[in-house]
Amino acid sequence: MFKNCFLKYVKNFLTVVILFICSFSNGQDPPKKFQNPILPGFNPDPSICRVGDDYYLVTSSFSWYPGIPIYHSKDLVNWELIGHGITRPEQLNFNGIKDKNGIWAVTIRYHNGLFYLITTCSDCGGNFYITAKNPAGQWSDSVWLKDAARIDPSLMWDDNDKCYYSGNSWDFKKSWAGQCAIWAQELDLKQQKLVGEKKILTYGYANNAGYAESPHIYKINGDYLLIAAEGGTDMYHSITAHHSSSILEPFKADKINPVLSHRQLGKDYPIQAVGHGDLVQTQNGDWWAVVLGKRLVDEQIPLSQETFLCKVNFENDTPIFNPGYGKFLLEQERPNLPWTPVKIEPFRDEFNSDSLALKWHTVRTPKEKWYSLDKGF
Q: Among 152, 231, 268, 308, which residue is least crowded by beta carbons within 10 Å?
């Protein structure tokens, strides 16, 4: 009897201790800083949009299926995988493509109650978009844009409610090696096709600019800002800014270009190949950017391209990335948003649910169901 009473006392004591610890932990102030990258591991070419107090982010998925991972956050730091854009073979077929091909450079946008994902399927169809009312899915069948040249498509809606497509092209007589063009054209969403005249916006910020790609256009204070990636996706990767008073007229390069790069920091700097960014304005009016980068470990890059976050201020229409630093930081002050942690995925999967967890993928589209979840196996 003494033993039972003692065990009961110990059990009750431990319960009180655990409850106290949990209460203390939950009562702590949220952290003042966050750690980069915000999406570690293979998460290249990030794109972001905000709807109310919610943020949605997508990354390239190449030949992995399901394709186009979609993340959700309330604070720009804690992200949860909520679904995928490509979940059905009839949307897209990755069979037979090389690992390096497939989904390149997705852009996510929201307009009038509908989410849009627009991207390139390299070596498997070209440029297309899909739509959904709920970003977690299910997404529509693919709408292919036959006249959309090359790669890295993006969308923006002007004040007149017209939708504009921007992308990258290199099908012209070049004046220097690696010369590429950023172009734009109106997209008629009712007809589901490009209409009107195609306009070249820029070839890059300098007369030897290489591989201008991944354009995003924003209308800020009545004028248009174009940010693009230049220099290729290795050490010379960068982000450049360009300005215009009209969306279908040539854009003028910003005087401080590139507005973000790590190439000037040398080949041994721990974060390399910074570029391919997208901007988002918070409900508080602050601007932030999601950008890809590569972490260097013993002269290797084991986790490939990852997604980083940095503050952006505007000075005379110029986007200043991480003011005072001009580079990515592994730790910095977090956004002024309510701290909202997400559920941590268990390290071990017991396979005891009715479907595979969202984190599981296959290389290319499976032709048949190749697994069973019967009793956790």
A: 268
